[in-house]
Protein backbone atom coordinates (compact mmCIF):
# COMPACT_ATOMS: atom_id res chain seq x y z
CA UNK A 1 0.00 0.00 0.00
CA UNK A 2 1.36 3.42 -1.01
CA UNK A 3 0.38 6.25 1.31
CA UNK A 4 1.02 9.96 0.70
CA UNK A 5 1.45 11.82 3.98
CA UNK A 6 0.20 15.35 3.65
CA UNK A 7 1.52 17.06 6.80
CA UNK A 8 0.10 20.43 7.73
CA UNK A 9 -1.20 22.83 10.33
CA UNK A 10 -4.46 23.08 8.33
CA UNK A 11 -5.47 26.24 10.21
CA UNK A 12 -7.92 26.01 8.49
CA UNK A 13 -7.87 23.41 5.70
CA UNK A 14 -8.73 25.22 2.42
CA UNK A 15 -9.58 24.33 -1.18
CA UNK A 16 -5.87 24.59 -2.12
CA UNK A 17 -5.11 21.64 0.18
CA UNK A 18 -8.00 19.68 -1.28
CA UNK A 19 -6.96 20.39 -4.89
CA UNK A 20 -3.38 19.22 -4.17
CA UNK A 21 -4.49 16.00 -2.46
CA UNK A 22 -7.09 15.24 -5.11
CA UNK A 23 -4.55 15.91 -7.88
CA UNK A 24 -2.26 13.26 -6.40
CA UNK A 25 -5.10 10.86 -5.70
CA UNK A 26 -6.06 11.02 -9.38
CA UNK A 27 -2.64 11.35 -11.04
CA UNK A 28 -0.15 9.27 -9.04
CA UNK A 29 0.21 5.70 -7.85
CA UNK A 30 -0.65 6.67 -4.25
CA UNK A 31 -3.46 4.48 -2.90
CA UNK A 32 -4.34 6.82 -0.03
CA UNK A 33 -3.55 10.31 1.15
CA UNK A 34 -3.51 10.98 4.87
CA UNK A 35 -3.95 14.59 6.04
CA UNK A 36 -1.70 14.56 9.12
CA UNK A 37 -2.86 17.43 11.34
CA UNK A 38 0.20 18.81 13.15
CA UNK A 39 -0.27 20.12 16.70
CA UNK A 40 2.89 22.25 16.55
CA UNK A 41 5.12 22.93 13.54
CA UNK A 42 8.65 23.49 15.01
CA UNK A 43 9.04 26.57 12.75
CA UNK A 44 5.74 28.27 13.67
CA UNK A 45 4.37 30.05 16.76
CA UNK A 46 1.26 28.47 18.24
CA UNK A 47 -0.62 31.79 18.56
CA UNK A 48 -3.73 32.00 16.33
CA UNK A 49 -3.62 28.21 16.01
CA UNK A 50 -7.03 26.63 16.48
CA UNK A 51 -7.34 23.68 18.88
CA UNK A 52 -6.00 20.37 17.45
CA UNK A 53 -9.39 18.64 17.52
CA UNK A 54 -11.14 21.59 15.83
CA UNK A 55 -8.59 21.51 12.99
CA UNK A 56 -9.00 17.73 12.75
CA UNK A 57 -12.79 18.12 12.55
CA UNK A 58 -12.39 20.66 9.72
CA UNK A 59 -10.15 18.20 7.83
CA UNK A 60 -12.73 15.48 8.41
CA UNK A 61 -15.47 17.72 6.96
CA UNK A 62 -13.28 18.60 3.95
CA UNK A 63 -12.32 15.01 3.09
CA UNK A 64 -15.35 12.90 4.04
CA UNK A 65 -16.70 12.70 0.47
CA UNK A 66 -13.32 11.65 -0.99
CA UNK A 67 -12.65 7.93 -0.88
CA UNK A 68 -8.82 8.16 -0.95
CA UNK A 69 -8.42 11.11 1.46
CA UNK A 70 -8.30 10.47 5.23
CA UNK A 71 -7.63 12.69 8.28
CA UNK A 72 -4.93 11.53 10.72
CA UNK A 73 -4.39 12.53 14.36
CA UNK A 74 -1.21 10.45 14.68
CA UNK A 75 0.88 13.47 15.75
CA UNK A 76 -1.50 14.36 18.63
CA UNK A 77 0.07 11.56 20.68
CA UNK A 78 3.71 12.27 19.82
CA UNK A 79 6.16 14.72 21.49
CA UNK A 80 5.85 18.39 20.48
CA UNK A 81 6.94 20.39 18.57
CA UNK A 82 6.36 17.80 15.86
CA UNK A 83 9.49 16.84 13.96
CA UNK A 84 8.44 14.96 10.84
CA UNK A 85 11.26 12.40 11.13
CA UNK A 86 9.85 11.23 14.49
CA UNK A 87 6.38 10.77 13.00
CA UNK A 88 7.80 8.86 10.01
CA UNK A 89 9.75 6.48 12.26
CA UNK A 90 6.65 5.94 14.39
CA UNK A 91 4.42 5.28 11.35
CA UNK A 92 6.91 2.93 9.71
CA UNK A 93 7.06 0.87 12.94
CA UNK A 94 3.28 0.79 13.19
CA UNK A 95 2.73 -0.04 9.49
CA UNK A 96 5.91 -1.89 8.38
CA UNK A 97 4.41 -2.96 5.03
CA UNK A 98 3.29 0.51 3.95
CA UNK A 99 5.35 2.67 1.64
CA UNK A 100 5.12 6.27 2.91
CA UNK A 101 5.76 9.34 0.73
CA UNK A 102 5.54 13.02 1.70
CA UNK A 103 3.47 15.72 0.04
CA UNK A 104 4.39 19.40 0.46
CA UNK A 105 4.13 22.83 -1.13
CA UNK A 106 7.27 24.36 -2.66
CA UNK A 107 7.56 26.82 0.28
CA UNK A 108 8.32 23.85 2.54
CA UNK A 109 10.94 22.46 0.12
CA UNK A 110 12.73 25.84 0.37
CA UNK A 111 13.29 25.31 4.11
CA UNK A 112 13.59 21.54 3.95
CA UNK A 113 17.40 21.64 4.50
CA UNK A 114 16.64 23.02 7.99
CA UNK A 115 14.34 20.13 8.98
CA UNK A 116 15.57 17.65 11.57
CA UNK A 117 17.38 14.72 9.84
CA UNK A 118 16.16 15.76 6.39
CA UNK A 119 18.84 13.55 4.77
CA UNK A 120 17.34 10.50 6.49
CA UNK A 121 13.85 11.49 5.34
CA UNK A 122 15.12 11.75 1.74
CA UNK A 123 16.96 8.45 1.97
CA UNK A 124 13.79 6.58 2.86
CA UNK A 125 10.86 8.46 1.33
CA UNK A 126 9.75 10.04 -1.94
CA UNK A 127 8.54 13.62 -1.81
CA UNK A 128 5.86 15.15 -4.02
CA UNK A 129 6.19 18.93 -4.30
CA UNK A 130 3.30 21.14 -5.41
CA UNK A 131 4.37 24.48 -7.02
CA UNK A 132 3.75 27.57 -4.89
CA UNK A 133 4.75 31.25 -5.01
CA UNK A 134 6.95 31.96 -1.98
CA UNK A 135 10.09 33.78 -0.83
CA UNK A 136 13.54 32.19 -1.16
CA UNK A 137 15.10 29.50 -3.32
CA UNK A 138 15.21 25.75 -3.33
CA UNK A 139 18.72 24.52 -2.37
CA UNK A 140 20.72 23.22 -5.34
CA UNK A 141 21.28 19.90 -3.51
CA UNK A 142 17.59 19.18 -4.21
CA UNK A 143 17.80 19.91 -7.96
CA UNK A 144 16.95 16.78 -9.95
CA UNK A 145 17.01 14.66 -6.75
CA UNK A 146 15.69 11.19 -7.52
CA UNK A 147 13.36 11.23 -4.51
CA UNK A 148 11.84 14.66 -5.26
CA UNK A 149 8.95 14.74 -7.73
CA UNK A 150 7.77 18.15 -8.88
CA UNK A 151 4.07 18.13 -9.69
CA UNK A 152 3.13 19.78 -12.95
CA UNK A 153 -0.01 21.68 -11.94
CA UNK A 154 -1.28 25.26 -11.87
CA UNK A 155 -0.13 27.57 -9.05
CA UNK A 156 -2.81 28.60 -6.53
CA UNK A 157 -2.35 31.84 -4.63
CA UNK A 158 -4.18 30.86 -1.48
CA UNK A 159 -3.13 30.44 2.14
CA UNK A 160 -4.64 29.79 5.55
CA UNK A 161 -3.02 33.05 6.76
CA UNK A 162 -4.92 35.06 4.14
CA UNK A 163 -8.16 33.26 5.00
CA UNK A 164 -7.77 33.86 8.77
CA UNK A 165 -7.00 37.55 8.18
CA UNK A 166 -9.95 37.98 5.81
CA UNK A 167 -12.39 36.34 8.27
CA UNK A 168 -11.15 38.69 11.01
CA UNK A 169 -11.82 41.64 8.69
CA UNK A 170 -15.36 40.37 8.07
CA UNK A 171 -14.76 39.53 4.39
CA UNK A 172 -16.65 36.87 2.51
CA UNK A 173 -14.22 34.00 1.86
CA UNK A 174 -16.76 31.24 1.20
CA UNK A 175 -15.28 30.16 -2.19
CA UNK A 176 -11.91 29.43 -0.53
CA UNK A 177 -13.20 26.81 1.90
CA UNK A 178 -15.02 23.53 1.21
CA UNK A 179 -18.74 24.16 1.93
CA UNK A 180 -18.96 22.07 5.13
CA UNK A 181 -15.73 23.63 6.43
CA UNK A 182 -17.06 27.15 5.93
CA UNK A 183 -20.35 26.26 7.64
CA UNK A 184 -18.53 24.89 10.71
CA UNK A 185 -16.05 27.81 10.88
CA UNK A 186 -18.98 30.24 10.70
CA UNK A 187 -21.14 28.40 13.23
CA UNK A 188 -18.26 28.15 15.73
CA UNK A 189 -17.13 31.76 15.16
CA UNK A 190 -13.56 30.62 14.46
CA UNK A 191 -10.90 33.25 13.58
CA UNK A 192 -13.16 36.24 14.32
N1 LIG B 1 -1.79 27.34 -2.22
C1 LIG B 1 -0.91 26.35 -1.99
N2 LIG B 1 -0.12 25.88 -2.99
C2 LIG B 1 0.77 24.88 -2.78
N3 LIG B 1 0.97 24.28 -1.58
C3 LIG B 1 0.22 24.69 -0.55
C4 LIG B 1 -0.76 25.74 -0.70
N4 LIG B 1 -1.37 25.92 0.50
C5 LIG B 1 -0.77 25.06 1.35
N5 LIG B 1 0.17 24.32 0.73
C6 LIG B 1 1.01 23.27 1.33
O1 LIG B 1 0.16 22.45 2.13
C7 LIG B 1 0.85 22.01 3.31
C8 LIG B 1 0.08 22.42 4.54
O2 LIG B 1 0.00 23.81 4.52
P1 LIG B 1 -0.50 24.73 5.70
O3 LIG B 1 -1.52 24.01 6.51
O4 LIG B 1 0.63 25.34 6.41
O5 LIG B 1 -1.28 25.83 4.83
P2 LIG B 1 -0.84 27.32 4.53
O6 LIG B 1 -1.91 27.87 3.65
O7 LIG B 1 0.58 27.36 4.06
O8 LIG B 1 -0.96 27.92 6.02
P3 LIG B 1 -0.39 29.25 6.70
O9 LIG B 1 -0.76 30.41 5.81
O10 LIG B 1 -1.09 29.27 8.04
O11 LIG B 1 1.12 29.06 6.81
C9 LIG B 1 2.25 22.64 3.23
O12 LIG B 1 3.13 21.68 2.67
C10 LIG B 1 2.06 23.81 2.27
O13 LIG B 1 3.26 24.09 1.57
O1 LIG C 1 10.77 18.09 11.06
C1 LIG C 1 11.07 19.30 10.98
O2 LIG C 1 12.17 19.75 11.32
C2 LIG C 1 10.00 20.24 10.45
C3 LIG C 1 10.25 21.60 10.30
C4 LIG C 1 9.23 22.41 9.80
C5 LIG C 1 7.99 21.87 9.48
N1 LIG C 1 7.79 20.54 9.66
C6 LIG C 1 6.47 19.96 9.36
O3 LIG C 1 5.99 20.36 8.11
C7 LIG C 1 4.57 20.27 8.09
C8 LIG C 1 3.99 21.42 7.33
O4 LIG C 1 3.74 22.46 8.22
P1 LIG C 1 2.80 23.69 7.87
O5 LIG C 1 2.66 24.42 9.19
O6 LIG C 1 3.55 24.49 6.83
O7 LIG C 1 1.52 23.18 7.39
C9 LIG C 1 4.15 20.12 9.55
O8 LIG C 1 3.77 18.78 9.77
C10 LIG C 1 5.42 20.44 10.32
O9 LIG C 1 5.52 19.77 11.57
C11 LIG C 1 8.75 19.72 10.13
From TrEMBL:
Pfam families: CTP_transf_like
UniProt keyword list: ATP-binding, NAD, Nucleotide-binding, Nucleotidyltransferase, Pyridine nucleotide biosynthesis, Transferase
Highest rank taxon of the organism: Bacteria
One of the GO BP terms on file: NAD+ biosynthetic process
SUPFAM superfamilies: Nucleotidylyl transferase (SSF52374)
Every Cytidyltransferase-like domain range: 5-165
EC number(s) given by UniProt: 2.7.7.18
Pathway where this protein functions: Cofactor biosynthesis; NAD(+) biosynthesis; deamido-NAD(+) from nicotinate D-ribonucleotide: step 1/1
CDD domains the UniProt entry points to: NMNAT
Entry GO MF terms: ATP binding; nicotinate-nucleotide adenylyltransferase activity
Class in the EC hierarchy, top level: transferase
Catalysed reaction, written as an equation: nicotinate beta-D-ribonucleotide + ATP + H(+) = deamido-NAD(+) + diphosphate
InterPro entries registered for this protein in UniProt: Cyt_trans-like, NadD/NMNAT, Rossmann-like_a/b/a_fold
Job description of the protein: Catalyzes the reversible adenylation of nicotinate mononucleotide (NaMN) to nicotinic acid adenine dinucleotide (NaAD).
Similarity comment: family membership: Belongs to the NadD family.
Record protein name field: Probable nicotinate-nucleotide adenylyltransferase
Species in which this protein is naturally found: Oceanihabitans sediminis
Amino acid sequence: MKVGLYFGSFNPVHIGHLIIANHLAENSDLDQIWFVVTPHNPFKKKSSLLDNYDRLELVHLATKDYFKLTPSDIEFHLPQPNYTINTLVHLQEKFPKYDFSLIMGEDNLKSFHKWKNYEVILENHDIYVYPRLSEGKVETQFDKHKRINHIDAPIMELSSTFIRKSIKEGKDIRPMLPKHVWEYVDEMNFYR
